[in-house]
Amino acid sequence: MLSPKNETARAGEQRAEKQNSSNENHAKKTTNTQVKTKLSCTNQEFIKAVFGQIDAAFCLWICSFKSSPDSENVGWGGKSYKLHLSLKLPEENNNYFSVAVLDFSSRKKSNFRRMAVLVLDDPDISKLPVNPSYILETSPGKYQVGFIINDTEESRDSAYCSRALNILAKRHLINADKSGNNIVRYVRLPVGTNTKKREAGNFQHCLQLWQPSRKFNLPDILKALGIDLSSADTAPKSKSKAKQQAEIIESQLDVRQSIEDIMTGDNFHDGLVRLAARYAARGMQRDDIEYTLIAAMNASAAKEYDKERWQARMAEIPSAIDSAIAKYGNEFAGKTALHTTPLNLFPDALGTPPIFSFEDYPEVIADLAKDVSKRTGADPVIPAWTAIAVATALIHDKHKLQVKALDNRWLESARLWIGFVGEPATKKSPAMSEVLSTIQNLQAKWYQEYIIKYEQWEIKAAAAEKQKLPKPKRPHLQKCFVNDTTLEALADILEYNNGGVLALHDELSGWFGSMDCYRQKGISKDRPAWLTAYNGGEHHIDRAGKQPRYIKNFSVSLVGGIQPDPMRRIASQLGDDGLLQRFIMLPINLAEKGEDAKPDAMAHEKWNKLCDYLSSYEEIPALITLSPEAQKIINESRKQLHALGQNPAFNKKLQAALQKGEGQLARLTLIFHIIENRDGCNFACLEKAPSAVVNATTATKAARLYLQFIVPNMIRFYHDVIGDSEEMRSARLIAGFILAHNKEYVTEREIYRAHRDFRGEGRPRLLKAMEQLEMAGWLSPQLERPGRPPNTWLVNPRVHADFAELAAKERQRRDAAKVSIQSTVELSRLSLND
Predict the structure, then answer these.
(1) Are 131 and 20 in contact (CB under 8 A)?
(2) Is pTM, for the whole model, over 0.85?
(3) Residues of 395-433 as b/e, b for ≥16 C-beta within 10 angstroms?
(4) How many CB atoms lie within 10 A of CB 532?
(5) 823 contacts: CB under 8 Å, gap ≥ 6
(6) Helix H or strand E segment including 290
(7) What is the mean pLDDT of residues 321-344?
(8) How many CA atoms lie within 13 A of 527 on its CB side?
(9) At what angle do helices 652-659 and 661-676 cross, to 10 degrees?
(10) What is the model's pLDDT at position 208?
C-alpha cells in the first residue's frame, strides 16, 4: 500500500485507513447496486484541492459544452483558468478540465508544466491496487478514477509523463487523446452532465469517493499499476529552452505541429519538409528559410540526447529547401497557395487575453507590482508598467542600445509611451500613485536642494555685480517628471534636463485634446513637437517675436490612462502621422477587492533604492551592445514583428503600431538590462556597474514579454477599441458566407445575392475585400479575363478543415437570425390582423 503525503501519527494513520476502507467498500458496492451516494463538492473546490497552489505565471484549462461529445463540431477548445477566479459552469453541460498545469494560455503539450492528477478511464474499481483520491461515475457503471500527484521532478518531466500515459493507453487504462496530447488530456469535473446519446438519456456525474488528502508520487502510483519507467531510456528532462526558441522563431503560418515535431525530435524529417514547403509557398527567400530551419534544429532538445540523428537531419536541410522551392516556389509566386495555411480573420480567434506573469519582469518591479496589486485590487499591469515608465524617466538618454551587430547608426534610448485603457473602477490612480510616490519624493528633495543652491547663487551674483565681475552660472532645477504641461513650459524644463523626463497624464484624453485633434483632423502645431519628443534628439523652437531656442535633447516618456469610448472618438479623428501608434496600449481589467495587508516594506525599499541609483549613478556604460546569443533572439523577434506588421488580417492602424514594435522591443531590452544585469548580480548589487553587453537571459525576458504580452494586448486594443478597416469588415462578411455554406468556390453573383449592399457601387468594395481574402490565404482567383478583374474564386480547402468550429458558430448565428426575423414577421402579421 502506498503511503500518502503527510500521514504522520500512527493513530491518524489508523483512522485514515479505516475511513479509506469504508470509502473503498462503498465504491465497490456502487458497481452492484442502483443506490448511489453522491458526495457534495463544487467544481471550484475540486479544482483547488487537485491542483493546490500554482505559480501565478501558469494556468489551468477548462472546457464546457452542451452538445454530445460524439457529435461533429464540438467546442473542445476550452479556455484558460486561474485558481483565484470564480468557476461557474452549467451543471447540464459536459464539463472537463485538463490534468496538467500549463505554461501559456493554450492547451498543447509543448506548454506542459506538470501533471497534477493521473486519471484512469473505466477501470474495474473492485480491483484497484491502491485506494485513489477520487472516483467519479461518468455514465452508468463507468468511472474515472483519479490519483492526485505530488509536485516532483517526475511529474514535471513531460517525456516521463508522456511515456507513462502511452503505456496506460496501450493497456486500455486511459482513453488516449485523439490528437496525441495525452499529457494535457481532458477528464470530467464532478459537477456536470454526460450528454452522450443513450437510451436512458443524459447522465449527471456522480462523485462517489472524494479523498483529496490522498496524494501520491507519480513513480509510486505507476509501480502500483505495474509500470516501472526507472529503466527506460532517458529522455530530455526539460524543454523550457526549446519552447522559448520555438516561440521566437514561430511565424504567423500555422506551423505549430511542425515546430513541435522538431523541438521534441519526434519527427525531424516531416517537420522540416512541411516548414520548407510552407515558407517556399509564401515566397520566403532561400536564405531566410535555411536560417529559420537551422534555428529550429539548434533549439531542439534532441540535439543533446540523439546527436547522430540530429546531425543527419541537419545535413538534409539544403536538399529539403531545394525540393520545396522547385515544387512550390514558382507555382505560387505572386499568388496565394491553395494549400497553404489560411489566416484566421475573426476577432474571436484572438483567444483569451494574455496572462500577466510576474516572472516576465525584473524582480524589483515584480515584487512592487505584487504588493500594490494585492492591497489596491488593481490589475498588476498598472503598477508594473508605471514602474517601467518611471525607469525610462530616470535612465539618462546618453545610455543607448545598439540594436544591430554591425550597423552602429541604429541606437535606442530608454523612452516609452504607455497608455492604460479601461473603464472606470480600475483603481488606476491609487495604483499609479503608490509607484509614483518615489519619484515625487525624489523630485521634492531636488527642489529643496535647488532652493539652497539658488539662494547661495543670489548672494554670489550680488557680490559679483558689486565687484563688476561676471556672474556665476545660475543653478537650474533638476526634474525627472512633469504633470499636465504646455510645450513651451516643457521646453524650459528640457533645456536643462537633457536626460529626458516623464510626462504624467492621469487622463490622456486631455493630452490628445490639447492638440486640436477634434477640430482639425489631427493637424496641430504641437503634434510635430510631440513626435520629436518620442524619438528624442535636437529640437529647434522658432516663435514670432521670441528668441529662437535650441534644445539639445527633446525627449519625453509618457504614461497615462484613458477610457475606451473617448479613445474611440479620438482615434477616429487622428491623422496618419503615427501619434497613436507610438503608444504601448494596454487594456486594463476591472479592479478586484484589495486585501487589508501591511505594505511589503522590502519591496518598496528595493524600489526606492533602485530609483535613487538610476537617477544618480554615472558609471552606466554609454553604449550597450547585444551578445551574439542575445542578438539572435532580438533578430528573430524583429522578424516576427515585421511579419505581424504585414498581416492583412489587421487594420492599417494596428499594422503601423506593430511596425514600431522593433524599436520598442529594443528600448524595453535596454531598460531591463540596466535594471538587473550587473555582471551577474541582481539589481541590489548597486556598487557594480551594469555590463556593457546584454546577455541572452535579459533579451529572452524582454522578447517574451513583448511578443507574448504586449503584442496580443495591442491586437486586442486595435480590434476591440479602434475597430477594423472597411475592407476587413467586408472580408469577414464574405468569409462568414464561405464558412456557413461550406463553399468550395465562390462567385461574384453569389456574393451579390447574399449581401445586397455589394451591388452597384459596392463592386470596388467587394474586389478590395476579395484581395484581403486572397492575401490571407482563403481564396485564389479563377477564370481570369484579360483586362478585367476576376469574378470567380476558388476556396482554399484548408479553410473548412481549420475553421470547422467557427463554421458551426456562423451557421448557428445565421439560423438564429432567421428565426428572429421570422418571429418578427409573424408578430407584425398578428398585430395587423388585430
Answers:
(1) yes
(2) no
(3) bbbebbbbbbeeeeeebbbbbbbbbbbbeeebbbebbbe
(4) 17
(5) none
(6) helix 286-298
(7) 54
(8) 18
(9) 40
(10) 93
